[in-house]
């Protein structure tokens, strides 16, 4: 948490520092390049990291480590090569965007590689790597104090830092790869791992896209004050939700182990209880929030309340999703399906609520998307839990070696 926290502080602090040093003109070149390719971090990191944490701890999973290493390093390598070619051609504006793509894909690559280190029982590589990236951002701001360093120069510096960090991580993985991880995985297992990485990346990409849709609605309304308020609220929510998501990733291998030791329906039943709690508390509290909006309760009070409610619903729902995604391939497919349903719900609710309720309406749209996702997912989970109970009854009472203790969520 210290390493990731330092990285986040450096990332946001560097933006503020560069804006103060450069002014709006040069900073806009930097921000537009980075902002346009931020999604690459999620594309590179989300699916492969979650898939690696789900599959490698299972029997036959260690040989998949090399596949996930390639999935992480390949996009970063391609972006870095494209940037070098464009920079050698004279540094056209496209080179700045290529450098930004290398930076964001490089962070995604680092995220996957440190997860592989954690699976080997070497968690300190995680904070070391992200503290190194944070130091790169700090160095960029320090060098920008001197006149002459442009947005392209800062991005080039960050690409260099990420090249060093990722090469060090790759070298460590290659030098100290255990024999169990040197075996080439069977082709079906490799294809299944690729499919899992693709499916597991859908949820976070659509979640980011839903926020982008809300920003588009705010832009259409032209209400600068409500747009700014929504930005502040979403930053507070994003920081806390990212921290919770990271803690769940740390515990994911232990959850996978618990699911393997438990009976077939234990994961489905626990996920159902979590989702039931979300609906039992989230629906009435959201109704209260909607009534408060209709009664013109001051937005300064409703905004923080909406953030707290959205975070509570998100934290519980994503904990249930962690179980669902790690039970079997069917659970991973359903996770992607409900993510699409959530995105469509947020998009429709945002167009209806934002023009009348502003920033709080945007958060009610996010909450509505989470609740619809929880309701659909719970229906699926309850059905799968019942099916597992029937199968267990038919198979008989032999549960030797099973462990039904609560997982380390």
Protein architecture, described:
The chain is an all-alpha fold. It folds into two domains: 2-192, no CATH class; 201-395, no CATH class. The chain contains 13 helices and no strands. It has helices at 2-22, 24-36, 39-55, 65-88, 93-119, 125-144, 151-175, 187-200, 202-221, 224-261, 266-294, 299-327, 329-395. The longest helix has 67 residues, at 329-395. The chain is flat and about 70 Å long. The two termini are 16 Å apart.
Kindly summarize this structure in a few lines.
By secondary structure, the protein is mainly alpha-helical. It has 13 helices and no strands.
List the helices and strands and how they pair.
Layout: H1 2-22, H2 24-36, H3 39-55, H4 65-88, H5 93-119, H6 125-144, H7 151-175, H8 187-200, H9 202-221, H10 224-261, H11 266-294, H12 299-327, H13 329-395
Helix pairs in contact: 1-2, 1-6, 2-5, 2-7, 3-4, 3-5, 3-8, 3-9, 4-5, 5-6, 5-7, 6-7, 9-13, 10-12, 10-13, 11-12, 11-13, 12-13
Provide keyphrases for this structure.
13 helices, mainly alpha, 409 residues
Strand content: under 5%
Rounded to an integer in angstroms, the radius of gyration calculated over CA atoms is 23 Å
Count up the domains.
Answer: 2
Tell me, rounded to a whole number, the average pLDDT.
87
Helix tally?
A: 13
**H/E element string?**
HHHHHHHHHHHHH
Number-wise, the strands total 0
Assembly category: single chain
Strand count, sense and closure of the main sheet? Answer: none
Shape: flat
Task: Output the structural class.
Answer: mainly alpha
Estimated helix fraction: over 70%
């Amino acid at each position: 948490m210290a390493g990731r926290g330092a990285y986040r502080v450096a990332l946001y602090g560097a933006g503020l520092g560069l804006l103060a040093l450069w002014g709006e003109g040069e900073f806009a070149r930097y921000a537009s390049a980075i902002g346009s390719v931020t999604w690459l971090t999620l594309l590179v990191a989300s699916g492969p990291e979650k898939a690696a944490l789900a599959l490698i701890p299972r029997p036959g999973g260690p040989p998949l480590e090399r596949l996930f290493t390639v999935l992480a390093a390949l996009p970063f390598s391609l972006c870095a090569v494209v940037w070098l070619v464009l920079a050698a051609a004279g540094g056209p504006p496209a080179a700045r965007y290529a450098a930004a793509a290398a930076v964001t894909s490089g962070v995604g690559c680092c995220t996957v590689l440190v997860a592989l280190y954690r699976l080997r029982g070497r968690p300190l590589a995680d904070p070391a790597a992200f503290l190194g990236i944070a130091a790169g951002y700090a160095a960029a701001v320090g060098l920008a104090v001197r006149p002459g360093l442009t947005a392209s120069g800062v991005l080039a510096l960050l690409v260099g830092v990420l090249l060093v960090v990722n090469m060090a991580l790759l070298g460590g993985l290659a030098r100290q790869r255990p024999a169990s991880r040197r075996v080439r995985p069977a082709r079906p297992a490799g294809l299944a791992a690729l499919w899992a990485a693709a499916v597991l990346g859908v949820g976070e990409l659509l979640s980011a896209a839903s926020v982008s849709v809300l920003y588009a609605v705010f832009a259409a309304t032209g209400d600068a004050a409500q747009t700014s308020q929504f930005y502040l609220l979403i930053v507070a929510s994003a920081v806390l939700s990212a921290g919770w998501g990271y803690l769940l990733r740390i515990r994911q291998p232990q959850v996978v182990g618990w699911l393997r030791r438990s009976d077939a329906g234990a994961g489905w039943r626990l996920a159902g209880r979590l989702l039931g709690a979300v609906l039992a508390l989230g629906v009435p509290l959201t109704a209260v929030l909607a009534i408060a909006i209709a009664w013109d309760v001051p937005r300064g009070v409703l905004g923080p309340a909406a953030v707290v409610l959205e975070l509570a619903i998100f934290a519980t729902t994503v904990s249930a999703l962690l179980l669902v995604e790690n039970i079997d391939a069917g659970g991973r497919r359903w996770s992607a399906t409900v993510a699409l349903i959530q995105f469509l719900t947020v998009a429709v609710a945002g167009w209806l609520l934002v023009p009348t309720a502003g920033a709080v309406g945007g958060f009610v749209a996010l909450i509505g998307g989470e609740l619809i996702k929880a309701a659909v997912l719970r229906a699926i989970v309850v059905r799968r839990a019942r099916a597992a109970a029937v199968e267990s009854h038919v198979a008989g009472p032999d549960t030797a070696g099973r462990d039904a203790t609560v997982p380390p969520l």
